[in-house]
Amino acid sequence: MKKKIEELIVNENTAWDFILRWLENSSNSYRLLEPNRDGAKECLISLQISNKSTMGSIILETGGILIENGWLRILGSGNVDICGDILSWNGFSGTNIKTVIKGALIIAHDVIGGFFAINAGAFEGEIKKVYYLAPDTLEWEPMDMGYTEFIEWVLEGDISLFYESFRWKGWEKDTLNLKGNEAFSFYPFLWTKQGEDITKVNRKNIPIEEIWDFQQEALRQFW
Length: 223
Hints:
Elements: H1 5-8, H2 16-24, E1 30-33, H3 37-47, H4 54-61, E2 64-67, E3 72-75, E4 104-110, E5 115-119, E6 130-134, E7 139-142, H5 147-156, H6 159-162, H7 171-176, E8 182-187, E9 202-207, H8 208-222
Antiparallel strand pairs: 1-2, 2-3, 3-4, 4-5, 5-6, 6-7, 8-9
Helix pairs in contact: 3-4
C-alpha cells in the first residue's frame, strides 16, 4: 500500500541537515535551484521515498543542483534551469525521451552527454550503486558508491580529476552559455578514434534529450 505524502515528509531528522553541512564545506562550486513544490510531492509519492533519505531531501528542497557552472546537474523536483526532474527522466511522467532504462534510475547528467544512474538490475554489478554512462565509451561504468556517497562526492570530491580528459580551454564560459536543457554534442563522436581528443572535435549546443536518445539508438545499432 502506497504511503501518503503526509507520511513521506517529516520535520525532524531529515537528510537535509547533513546535506547542508556538505554544502558549507563544498570544494566545488554549486547552485541550488528553487524547488517545484507540487512536483516534489509527486516525486516522493511516485518513488515512495521520504525526506529522511538523501534523495528525498534533495527532491523536496531543490529543483536540482548545478555543480561547477552547471557542468554537472543533479536532478531534483524540476526547474527551468535544469532539464527535467527525476520522474521525467525515468518514464514516470512528462518525459520527452524515447528510451527509458528499465532497472535503473537516472539521477544526474552532465554537459558532455554523460549520465548517472542507480542500478536496480539493469547493469551487471551491485544493486543500489551509481553507474556512469561515459560519453567516450557508451558503457555504464561503476562508480563504487551509493546515492548518498555520490552527492557527497560531487560536492566535496575531485570533480576536476574525474573530468580531466573531457575539458578544454574555456569550458567554464562555454558551459555558462548553455541553456538549462542543453548539453554539448561533439563530432567526431567521442567514442570514435577520431574523437579521442576533445580539444580537436567540433561542439554545438543541442537539447540533452536528443543526446540521450541518439546514444541509446547507437547502442542498439552498434553494441
